[in-house]
Specification:
heterotrimer; A mainly alpha; B mainly alpha; C alpha+beta; A: mainly alpha; MetI-like fold; two-stranded antiparallel ribbon; 12 helices; globular; C: 8 helices; about 25% helix
Chain lengths: ~300, ~270, ~350
């Protein structure tokens, strides 16, 4: 895999660079600009320096309190999501049928939630969970549980988490399934000959071979759950109170709701920076994992 | 050996978990509002197509579908066509700043849409693209182009370099090699990348809603209008929801045999 | 350590109702002696890997039985068969060190730790893997990985036979013979039954004391390399083994004589009258046909080209429609393109429908 050095390759990359730069760099400059200013509407701006950033990181201020609270909520949410979706996704991938029409059927149904617009996902669960007209809410209430995601914080959280599990576990499962499919049969046969138990096959063969796709799955899920906006917004609107207000919801509230552009921009930058750092770690880990892999071997 | 004990039960339970909420939506879309609100019925007792009729006869409803599909298709075409040469470059050559550029591209995939909502609003208003499908299509490029580059790079790397060299020795020019040889070889990869672009553009709402008001408003945003003076029109909302699931379901059906390969992203 | 008997063993991937012609392995009955070094030789798709997988238990036979030392083990799972198998591509447990890889089969069987350590050390010594014991197995070269796969088989003291499925495919040519001689040495030292699947006749002939040739789901001949060379039981064995392969030409045979293209060749044995309707051919290895100056009484042929293999030269000649390879004696120079062919009658064999016909001396 020795690549040749060729600076003309830049011409091939140029279209991508221009398209993404147009959508990324100009807006980013606007955000940086806003983040240093304050506005009282009417397009009048005042220089505020790093004022917003100071406030943002100080929990005693209104802005800082809101930011840090939503950040903590969001981190907790991402942690719960990962703890449920990754193991469940692996189990589902391992439960896939081996051959026949049922494979295609399972794949289609698994992929279905991934292609539903995010606000429709929210709508589906908003309806499904309602105690008066939703199957889930109705059933739970008739079983004697006082379930109501609008008024009860715990119920709201549970609904948002179950919804995310419903929405995204398939992604983990499909990635893992693709990883499992790439394991040559000889591995399973050798394990059989070596007398490996089912669990040993999992830990010695399947898990190590899925390691790369799992990394992708974990990081995609982390990123997307950390940026989540639409689905909880539709279901709970961030409530009850602020109990399900995640960082993106807070940000949109400040930016488009209050038109506090300076605060919103500062929040955006810090928010983006956190994700960027995680992304960089992800990238480094990925490329190192890639370098460790030995030369590709064909499989007959 | 591939699978685990009790796998059938697990799979069936999980599929039921996935399908039940969707079934409930479909079920409601065929009910009258009276039936929805007054009784709990597991299937429509007085099935009606009225909700669907309203959507198909009201232009402000069905034009939402056309808007959505328009910007999704524009976005997919732009993403794939700019990503293809870049994927080739990243796969075959080393050049100044290649790794940083690749990282920068990927980092945009990780940028929260909420961060960009407002600046995009300003940007596209300034250049007069606001409330056109082009605005949404271009905005979605920020996460779809990096993704397409990443997926295609994996597939291009799967094509042996000898093929390029042979083609150039045979006197193919670069563009001709690209169109006649490389593209057919990675056709399935292009399909996979297009699938993912379609998927992420179709499901995104925040940017699509922020960048449109009337003329390009996507269907999923129009749905929020079902709150009327008489309370929620649940049946209509459900019917609109069902209709937004259908394009995705169709796409999945056509690519069902490639899903597993697609999720391997051409690299495993 | 065991003798392996196959009794009417057959397998079809399409189920038992499939026509016999489509069986991947047609019914076979044979015995593999304890301590033998066997090679299963044949082109791809001839059923050799199926046979191997039946013995190891990866595939369950459609019909027939497999006996280890007389005991029927057909229904037993792979784990319970005490078979070791080395695959075409090295199978390595990525996350483990070389030592852990070697210990894996013993750990799975609940062997005490002290015994495992002793056994792993011994096998590592035997395979020259000792310096790598604490290294991650993924980083090693293909031949070292293949040694680890082999080691995982050897590490079990109870193993009945070791099966090899084209194990040298991914090994660099210069390392191939090293690894092969290692295998031979191990075979001598450990007194194990080894079955080695390959499509490469050099590999088969140098490794094995008994070569089993398969063709189209059938075992066509099983014998020492010399037997396969001197007296192929089937025309397939004749041209598959040897380089160049055996000359096989249609002929009419009666008594002590074979006629090709109007010319008579003397035979060493009496074949009496052969069954009518069968396709009769004679087979003779190029090593036992010499070209000579044309003379009456010799089958005359036209030379198409001469292959110089260094130690020996073979002429490619044509007799009527039939093509022949024949040895060119040292120092022989061809005056023009026409030569005579001299056959060694004791090495001319007669085949009916592809099978060797035994004549009467």
């Amino acid at each position: 895999m020795d690549k040749t050095v060729n600076q003309k390759a830049w011409f091939l990359v140029l279209p991508v660079f221009l398209v993404v730069a147009f959508s990324a760099i100009l807006p980013l400059m606007t955000v940086v600009n806003y983040s240093m200013q304050d506005t009282f509407g009417n397009n009048q701006f005042f220089w505020n320096g790093v004022g917003w950033f100071k406030e943002l990181l100080d929990p005693s201020t209104d802005l800082g309190g809101r930011f840090l609270d939503s950040l903590a909520r969001n981190l907790f949410f991402s942690a719960v999501i990962l703890a449920i979706e990754v193991p469940l996704g692996i189990v589902v991938a391992l439960s896939m049928p081996r051959e026949g029409w049922s494979v295609a059927a399972c794949l289609v149904i698994l992929a279905l939630p991934l292609l539903i617009p995010w606000n429709v996902v929210g709508t589906i669960w908003q309806i499904f969970g309602r105690p008066d007209i939703g199957l889930l809410g109705y059933t739970l209430n008739h079983l004697g549980m006082n379930y109501n995601y609008v008024s009860n914080e715990f119920d709201a959280w549970a609904t948002v988490i179950v919804m995310d599990v419903w929405h995204w576990t398939s992604l983990v499962a499909l990635l893992c399934y693709a990883g499992l499919k790439s394991i040559p049969d000889a591995y399973y046969q050798a394990a059989q000959i070596d007398g490996a138990s089912r669990w040993a096959v999992f830990t010695a063969i399947q898990l190590p071979k899925m390691n790369r796709v799992l990394l992708i799955a974990v990081l995609l899920r982390f990123m997307d759950s950390f940026m989540i906006y639409t689905e909880p917004f539709v279901v709970t609107g961030g409530g009850p109170g602020n109990s399900t207000t995640f960082v993106s919801i807070e940000l949109v509230k400040i930016a488009l709701g209050q038109f506090d552009l300076g605060k919103a921009a500062a929040l955006s930058l810090v928010y983006n920076l956190i994700i960027l750092i995680v992304c960089w770690i992800f990238y480094t880990v990925m490329t190192n994992a890639g370098n460790e892999r030995p030369a590709k071997q064909g499989v007959a | 050996m591939h699978s685990i004990p009790g796998r059938r039960t697990i799979m069936v339970l999980f599929l039921i978990f996935l399908l039940l909420p969707i079934y409930w939506l479909v079920n409601m879309s065929f009910k009258t509002n009276g039936e929805i609100v007054s009784t709990m019925t597991l299937w429509p007792h007085q099935p009606t197509l009225a909700n669907y009729m309203r959507i198909f006869t009201d232009e402000s409803w069905y034009s939402g579908y056309i808007h959505s599909l328009t910007y999704v298709v524009i976005n997919t075409v732009i993403s794939i066509s700019v990503a293809l040469p870049a994927a080739y470059a990243f796969s075959r050559y080393r050049f100044l700043g290649d790794k940083h550029l690749f990282f920068w591209l990927l980092s945009n995939r990780m940028a929260p849409a909420a961060v960009y909502a407002l600046p995009f609003f300003n940007l596209y208003s300034a250049i007069g693209l606001f409330d056109t499908p082009w605005a949404v299509a271009l905005a979605h490029c920020i996460f779809n182009v990096p993704l397409a580059v990443w997926i295609l790079e994996g597939f291009v790397s799967g094509v042996p370099r000898e093929i390029d060299e042979t083609a150039f020795l045979d006197g193919y020019s670069f563009p001709r090699f690209f169109v006649k040889i490389l593209v057919p070889l990675i056709a399935s990869g292009i399909g996979v990348a297009a699938f993912f672009c379609f998927m992420f553009s179709w499901v995104e709402l925040l940017l699509a809603r922020t960048l449109t008001t009337v003329n390009a408003k996507p269907i999923s945003a129009i749905m929020t209008r079902t709150v009327s003076a008489a309370g929620m029109d649940w049946g209509l909302l459900a019917a609109a929801g069902v209709l937004t699931i259908i394009p995705g379901a169709l796409v999945i059906w056509f690519v069902r045999n490639y899903i597993a390969r697609g999720f391997a992203l051409g690299r495993v | 350590m065991a003798r392996i008997d196959l009794v009417d063993l057959a397998h079809s991937y399409g189920g038992n109702d499939a026509p016999l012609e489509s069986f991947a392995l047609k019914p076979v009955t044979m015995t593999w002696r304890q301590g033998g070094a066997y090679a299963l030789l044949g082109p791809s798709g001839c059923g050799k890997t199926t046979l191997l997988n039946l013995i190891s238990g990866i595939v369950t036979p459609s019909s027939g039985k497999i006996l280890f030392d007389g005991a029927d083990i057909t229904p037993l799972s792979t784990q319970k068969r005490n078979i070791a198998q080395v695959f075409q591509f090295p199978v390595i447990y990525d996350t483990m060190t070389v030592g852990q890889n070697l210990a894996f089969p013993l750990k799975n069987r609940g062997v005490p730790k002290a015994d495992i350590d002793a056994r792993v050390k011994k096998i590592a010594d035997l395979l020259d893997l000792t310096p790598y014991l604490d290294r991650k197995a993924t980083r090693l070269t293909a031949d070292a990985k293949q040694k680890i796969s082999l080691g995982r088989g050897l590490v079990r003291s109870d193993v009945a036979a070791i099966l090899f499925d084209e194990p040298l495919t991914v090994i660099d040519p210069e390392l191939k013979w090293q690894l092969r001689s290692k295998l031979k040495a191990l075979h001598r030292d450990l007194d194990l039954t080894m079955i080695y699947v390959t499509h490469d006749q050099t590999e088969a002939l140098t490794f094995a004391d008994t070569v089993v040739v398969m063709h189209d789901g059938r075992v066509v001949q099983s014998g020492t390399p010399a037997e396969l060379f001197d007296k192929p039981a089937h025309t397939f064995v004749g041209y598959f083994i040897g380089s160049p392969g055996m000359n096989i030409v249609p002929a009419t045979v009666s008594g002590h004589e074979a006629r090709i293209d109007g010319h008579t060749i003397g035979l060493h044995r009496n074949y009496g009258v052969l069954p009518a309707g069968a396709k009769i051919e004679i087979g003779v290895r190029p090593e036992f046909v010499n070209v000579a100056a044309p003379a009456s009484g010799l089958l005359s042929a036209n030379i198409e080209r001469i292959d110089d293999l260094g130690r020996v030269r073979f002429a490619r000649v044509r007799v009527g429609d039939a093509k022949f390879a024949a040895r060119v004696p040292p120092g022989f120079s061809v005056p023009d393109n026409t030569v005579g062919l001299v056959f060694d009658p004791s090495h001319v064999h007669v085949y009916a429908d592809g099978r060797l016909v035994e004549g009467v001396a």
